[in-house]
Amino acid sequence: MLQDSAPEVVICDPKYHSLLDGIGPKVVPYTFNDKAALQSAPVQGWQDGDALIVYTSGTTGRPKGVVHTHSSIEASCASLSSAWHWSPNDKILNVLPMHHMHGIINILNCAIWNGADCHMHSAKFNPDEVLDKLLSANQSYNVFMAVPTIYDRLTRTIKQRVSEDPQFKQELNNRFK
Description:
CATH topology: Rossmann fold
Structural class: alpha/beta
CATH architecture: 3-Layer(aba) Sandwich
Number of strands: 6
Largest sheet: 2 strands, parallel
Shape: globular
CATH class: Alpha Beta
Order of helices and strands: HEEHEEHEHEHHH
Radius of gyration: 20 Å
Helix content: 40-55%
Strand content: 15-25%
């Protein structure tokens, strides 16, 4: 991917820096909230450079690649962060696929932008697994975003569990007082 996209700069976690030695572009090790590293990384005019290609669904024809610049992603993250009051204290479970703009920008990039914790659900969506993660005593998610189909499946799963186990309803009530 790095050869195909021919980036001028690669920003990565320091633990991967050695894996990228000698690939061509400048490699900048970066940890969240390390503004100095980011400011030393960009090349001139990077804001208007291509940052992301997402393909349309193809409902009206063949899928088309839509290019987003660094500036368009920055504008999205800034406006969503302000509107939704994202903070470094937020913790979110991302269950959306990484070819979905909501999963890429609204969840992952906004979490990164704000230094929040973003946990990626690594498996195919399963409402029982996701519900268990959301209700886990080991986690304390305070943000969750999805699409209507996921909310519908989670609601059906909750209703089913409540009908099969009345104690589950009490556990939910205790958890969300």
